[in-house]
């Protein structure tokens, strides 16, 4: 019985010394953040966090700040080629919609619409932007609630002018 108690205490002591959480094992530690700016009269701002997963894939997490809702409703989000104010900025990848109850979405980025895959280093030099829409169809689709340049494009607040926001096609 004494040996069992010693083994149990030893096991507990060793297991409590582990510093790696399961989250640490998922990521390489490479991470970059981009601000998402209010793009309409809807009072939302946000943050895009890009993390490199251990397998080399990229995880894009969008977290909005603003009013949450109690009912299920989702804001569509897209990664586009070009800057937010480019007239011709095709969609690069459809992202997971943002749940209004949590104001958050997470997407593991797959192959882009141009058939290319992005590494973490590629993303840092990617010519692109993020747009989050009010709705996935109808007139509300044309309302962009937040947007921001990513990659090589200037993401500074001085460079963002919501009056220069361009609309995007609902087609992928």
Question: Would you write up a description of this structure?
Answer:
The protein has 172 residues and is mainly beta. The chain has a single domain (22-164), classed as Immunoglobulin-like. 15% of the residues lie in helices and 39% in strands. The chain contains three helices and eight strands. The chain has helices at residues 2-16, 22-26, 120-124, and strands at 27-38, 45-53, 58-65, 74-81, 91-99, 104-109, 127-133, 144-151. The chain has an eight-stranded antiparallel beta sheet with strand order 5-4-7-8-1-2-3-6. The radius of gyration is 20 Å and the shape is globular. It starts with a helix and ends in a 21-residue tail after the last strand. This is Secreted protein. It comes from Indibacter alkaliphilus (strain CCUG 57479 / KCTC 22604 / LW1).
Which helices and strands, and how do they pair?
Layout: H1 2-16, H2 22-26, E1 27-38, E2 45-53, E3 58-65, E4 74-81, E5 91-99, E6 104-109, H3 120-124, E7 127-133, E8 144-151
Antiparallel strand pairs: 1-2, 1-8, 2-3, 3-6, 4-5, 4-7, 7-8
Task: Give a short summary of the structure.
It comes from Indibacter alkaliphilus (strain CCUG 57479 / KCTC 22604 / LW1). This protein has a single domain, classed as Immunoglobulin-like (Sandwich).
């Amino acid at each position: 019985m004494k040996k069992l108690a010693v083994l149990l205490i030893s096991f507990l002591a060793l297991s409590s010394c582990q510093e790696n959480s399961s989250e640490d094992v998922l990521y390489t530690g490479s991470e970059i953040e981009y601000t998402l700016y209010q793009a309409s009269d809807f009072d939302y701002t946000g943050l895009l966090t890009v993390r490199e997963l251990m397998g080399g894939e990229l995880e894009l997490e969008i977290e909005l700040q603003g009013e949450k809702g109690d009912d299920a409703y989702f804001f569509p989000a897209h990664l586009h080629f070009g800057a937010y104010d480019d007239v011709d900025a095709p969609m690069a990848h459809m992202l997971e919609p943002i749940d209004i109850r949590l104001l958050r979405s997470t997407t593991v980025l797959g192959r882009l619409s141009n058939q290319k895959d992005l590494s973490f280093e590629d993303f840092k030099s990617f010519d692109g932007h993020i747009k989050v829409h009010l709705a996935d169809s109808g007139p509300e689709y044309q309302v962009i609630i937040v947007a921001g340049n990513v990659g090589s494009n200037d993401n500074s607040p001085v460079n963002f002018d919501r009056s220069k926001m361009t609309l995007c096609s609902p087609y992928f």
